[in-house]
Specification:
There is one protein chain. This protein is an alpha+beta fold. The chain folds into two domains: 43-192, 3-Layer(aba) Sandwich (Creatine Amidinohydrolase, Chain A, domain 1), CATH 3.40.350.10; 194-428, Creatinase/methionine aminopeptidase superfamily (Creatine Amidinohydrolase, Alpha-Beta Complex), CATH 3.90.230. It has helices at residues 43-59, 71-78, 109-118, 134-150, 166-175, 185-193, 197-219, 227-240, 303-321, 329-342, and strands at residues 19-20, 23-24, 65-68, 94-98, 104-107, 124-127, 157-161, 179-183, 252-255, 276-280, 283-285, 288-290, 293-297, 355-357, 364-368, 385-388, 391-393, 402-404, 407-410, 417-418. The strands form six sheets. A six-stranded mixed sheet has the order 6-5-4-3-7-8, sandwiched between helices.
Length: 430
């Protein structure tokens, strides 16, 4: 097991050990390899816990079974690390979970072979087509899915589905008129909302890799290089350390005026003296994401650049201080906005939420600072994990006036625990 004995901790010290869910975790990443001389990560137990949580969420819903296609939900239920084809990822693999059974893997042909020879925990697996051509989708429903459901007594009732195209819905209505399709994404979100201690341990390891990726990018940021050069160096470190993919498919390295407004990708722009440079690449490890962002400066910053950076930094710190049980996501967002407003920059906040849940989803509910219709208020609970990322951009600043800082934060029973450790840029602090 991964757990250690609980001991007291200093929230500002390096050996912080949060108590989460009544148990303690080690509070640091032990290393990404399996070794015989130290307890590390019990992935068999982690798989059992995830399926158990999904069963609980299903039992608490009005559905009889859940059928998932989203990458993170398939990974959550089956641990399938799949080949991801651009633009097709939610059409390649699926999983079916009923109230009494383990997950059934529905995978593309190559994944089925992998499951048969290397995933002993998968009790049943079936090859499926890419779920987009109407005729193939209909064939899947008639010849594969219907028999699976019938043997489980599910020719009628309610099937929760997380994501599907219209051809799938049409086929289900035609061949299973007594089976009602209902929302399955919310079922899976509820299962994933609160992380287990083992999940947090794996996320901590992902953060160690994400920190290293971010640090490599910062170290390689200098005048005369291009944004793409920095992204390439960071991606090399990601793969060298065993990371599976970046937090964003398009690695985010934006420099100078590309942060005002943010371009949110890496280009052939040449980095110049006095450019602010933002890095947001992160890492995935064993299915769990780390989302870490830092802004640095090439050369000497201007006073205005320092003021923007300081406002974002102080806003982030004010928000982190609210991230404890008893407070809400709105308390956190209000604290960030109020602190940035003290610097007169609240009107320059990026028009996106300020934070988001994270785990097997690179970006998942719950959210902090969402302002669009349907935004909800909720209380922080132990074992929630967030990426908090205030961004302020001011136009017409030489070298760019855009700054974002992003940290990974674990909610504990007491003070919040920073999972990310990359240093902030002291030269940019007033």
């Amino acid at each position: 097991m991964y757990y250690t004995e609980y001991r007291t901790w200093d929230p500002l010290g390096p050996d912080f050990i949060p108590r989460t869910g009544g148990r303690a975790i080690s509070g640091y990443a032990k290393g990404p390899f399996a070794v015989d001389w130290e307890d590390r990560y019990d992935f068999a137990e982690l798989r059992r816990q995830r399926v158990g949580k999904a069963h609980e969420a299903l039992a608490g819903s009005d559905a009889d079974a859940v059928l998932v296609w989203k990458d993170e939900n398939v990974r959550y239920l089956t641990s399938l690390r799949a080949q991801l084809i651009a633009g097709k990822t939610t059409s390649l693999n699926g999983a079916l979970l009923t109230a009494d059974d383990g997950p059934v893997l529905l995978g593309s042909g190559g994944e089925i072979d992998k499951a048969r020879f290397g995933m002993s925990w998968i009790g049943e697996a079936h090859a499926v087509p890419i779920m987009e051509q109407r005729e193939l989708v209909d064939g899947f429903v008639k010849d594969i899915l219907i028999p699976l459901l019938q043997t489980r007594g599910l020719s009628s009732g309610r099937l929760a589905v997380d994501q599907a195209n219209i051809s799938f819905i049409d086929s289900m209505r035609a061949h299973l008129p007594d089976l009602e399709l209902v929302d399955g994404d919310t079922v899976m979100q509820q299962a994933r909302w609160i992380k287990t201690d083992l999940e947090i341990a794996v996320i901590e390891e992902a953060c160690a890799i994400g920190d290293s990726v971010t640090q490599r990018a910062l170290d390689e940021t200098r005048a005369g290089r291009r944004e793409l050069d920095v992204a390439a160096d960071a991606m090399q470190t990601l793969f060298q350390l065993g990371g599976e993919m970046a937090h964003v498919i398009t690695p985010f390295v934006a420099t100078g005026e590309h942060m005002s407004p943010p371009h949110r990708l890496a280009t052939d722009k040449i980095i110049r003296n006095q450019d602010l440079c933002f890095i947001d690449i992160g890492a995935m490890w064993n299915g769990y994401f780390a989302d870490i962002g830092r802004t640095t400066i090439v050369g000497k910053p201007s006073k205005e650049q320092q003021e923007i950076y300081t406002a974002v930094y102080e806003g982030l710190m004010a928000g982190l201080d609210k991230m404890r049980p008893g407070n809400t996501n709105q308390d956190c967002a209000d604290a960030i906005i109020a602190k940035i407003a003290e610097h007169g920059l609240d009107e320059h906040l990026f028009s996106l939420f300020i934070g988001h849940g994270i785990g097997m989803g690179a970006n998942e509910p719950p959210y902090i600072g969402e302002t669009l219709p349907g935004a909800t208020t909720y209380e922080f609970q132990p074992n929630m994990v967030f990426a908090v990322e205030p961004l302020v951009w001011v136009p017409n600043v030489r070298g760019g006036g855009g700054v974002r800082l992003e940290d990974m934060v674990l909610i504990t029973e007491g003070d919040p625990h920073l999972l990310s450790r990359v240093e902030y840029e002291e030269r940019l602090l007033v």
